[in-house]
Amino acid sequence: MKARIPGTPKQSDDERLLTDPELPAMDKNVANVLAELRQDHRNMSLMLNLLEVESNRLFDGDDTDFELLYDIMHYMTVYPDVVHHPKEDRIYAELKAVRPDLSAGFDRITVDHRHIAELGVRLRDDVASVNSGGVVPRKSVVADTLRYVNTLRGHIQWEELDLFRRIEEMIAGGHEFFEVATFLQTPDPVFGPEVEANFVRLFESVKERLVEED
After folding, report:
1. How many domains does the chain divide into?
2. Is residue 208 part of a domain?
3. Does the residue 5 lie in any domain?
């Protein structure tokens, strides 16, 4: 399944990604949350592909769209890091509490999420510095991009092939709901029903890539 073409632009600001009293609580159905996480992975993989294309251009000495690079990393540090990964931490905590026999060896997940966030902030700051006129060695940006892309891709694959299958086993065993009162159903600012204003340029780039792949 391909990443879903996003909706229409909407005026808003980044704070709404973190908390909004008008947003509903996250779905209590574990299977539904798992489906959302898998859709996020497809969307995130598309972003990683875009990052890789621009990194290859930079490595080859071709024109590189640093504004697009920043938009991608802005998205990755305010949605996957702030919304997606905490959801995974919560669903893993449920697995550990309900089926400890299935959770062995998965304590690394929260550590991995912190590490990915650190790599993402480093890359975002590299690109922001370039866009503001700073001097950042090309090889440093390329190295940080590839490190981020490869780390997150490997993490996604591990979750899809192992963690999520264990969650499915928990569901099959009869544990279908969990407590999520403290989690808001925060929409994806690019792939959600409406596009946040700060991500319109990224939205257009994603649409172009999806059209090219059809």
Report:
1. 1
2. no
3. no
Q: What pTM value is reported for the model? A: 0.86
Instruction: Domain of residue 106: give its range.
Output: 23-193
Q: How many Cβ atoms from other residues are within 10 Å of residue 120's Cβ?
A: 23
Residue type, 96: K
Q: 119 in a domain, yes or no?
A: yes
CATH of the domain at 180: 1.20.120.520
By 3-state DSSP, what share of the chain in percent is helix, strand and coil, each rounded to 5?
Answer: 65, 5, 30
Tokens representing 185 are 């159903």
Residue by residue, pLDDT tens for the chain (214 residues) are 445 444 444 444 344 444 444 555 667 888 999 999 999 999 999 999 999 999 999 999 999 999 999 999 999 999 999 999 999 998 999 999 999 999 988 889 999 999 999 999 999 999 999 999 999 999 999 999 999 999 999 999 999 999 999 999 999 999 998 877 667 678 999 999 999 999 999 999 988 877 777 6
